């Protein structure tokens, strides 16, 4: 079976939102999804895009997606590639779609002279953790992710 990957276009916004909602359902986080077609269209394809998306096709069907953006390492003085979301439809898991998406992004990171390719995974998601380990990715045990959002973000900003 052939797996192809292509950059998303503005016409793919409804499909991207479907993938985001399916990912949120898998992660038991549907209550956090406030994204809309309009917000995605502006964020991904507006005058100053915040992120990029690639879509994987298998058997002629949209099988998965990856949403990513550039970050920066001061230690390397070099940008990196950060994978925000990776999702493969259950029907296509185990067929190489996720691996092909990660290979594509790793190649893109090298083409763009990135020093790192990073992502986060929920600590309960053992299938994903094992999948990433099998590809050579290593967890960063010395680091914890911190987040401030909503009311806490406004308080911190003094609003």
Structural overview:
The protein is α+β, with helices and mostly antiparallel strands. The chain is built from five helices and five strands; from the N terminus they run βααβββαβαα. It has helices at residues 13-26, 37-45, 97-111, 126-134, 150-157; strands at 3-7, 52-58, 61-73, 78-88, 117-119. The chain has a five-stranded mixed β-sheet. The protein starts with a strand and ends with a helix. The mean pLDDT is 96.
Question: How would you describe this structure in keywords?
Answer:
alpha+beta; globular
Q: Brief description of this entry?
A:
35% of the residues lie in helices and 25% in strands. With 159 residues, it is α+β, with helices and mostly antiparallel strands. The longest helix has 15 residues.
Write the layout of secondary structure elements.
Elements: E1 3-7, H1 13-26, H2 37-45, E2 52-58, E3 61-73, E4 78-88, H3 97-111, E5 117-119, H4 126-134, H5 150-157
Parallel strand pairs: 4-5
Antiparallel strand pairs: 1-2, 2-3, 3-4
């Amino acid at each position: 079976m052939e797996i192809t990957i292509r950059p998303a276009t503005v016409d793919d916004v409804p499909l991207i939102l479907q993938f985001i909602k399916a990912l949120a359902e898998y992660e038991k986080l549907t209550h956090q999804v406030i994204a809309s077609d309009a917000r995605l269209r502006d964020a991904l394809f507006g005058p100053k895009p915040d992120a990029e998306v690639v879509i994987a096709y298998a058997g002629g069907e949209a099988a998965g997606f990856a949403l990513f953006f550039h970050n920066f390492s001061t230690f390397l003085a070099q940008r990196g590639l950060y994978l925000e979301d990776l999702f493969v439809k259950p029907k296509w898991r185990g067929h190489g779609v996720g691996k092909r998406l990660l290979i594509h992004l790793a190649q893109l990171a090298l083409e763009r002279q990135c020093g790192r390719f990073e992502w986060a995974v929920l600590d309960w998601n053992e299938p994903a953790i094992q999948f990433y380990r099998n590809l050579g990715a290593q967890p960063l045990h010395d680091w914890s992710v911190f987040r401030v959002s909503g009311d806490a973000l406004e308080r911190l900003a003094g609003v």
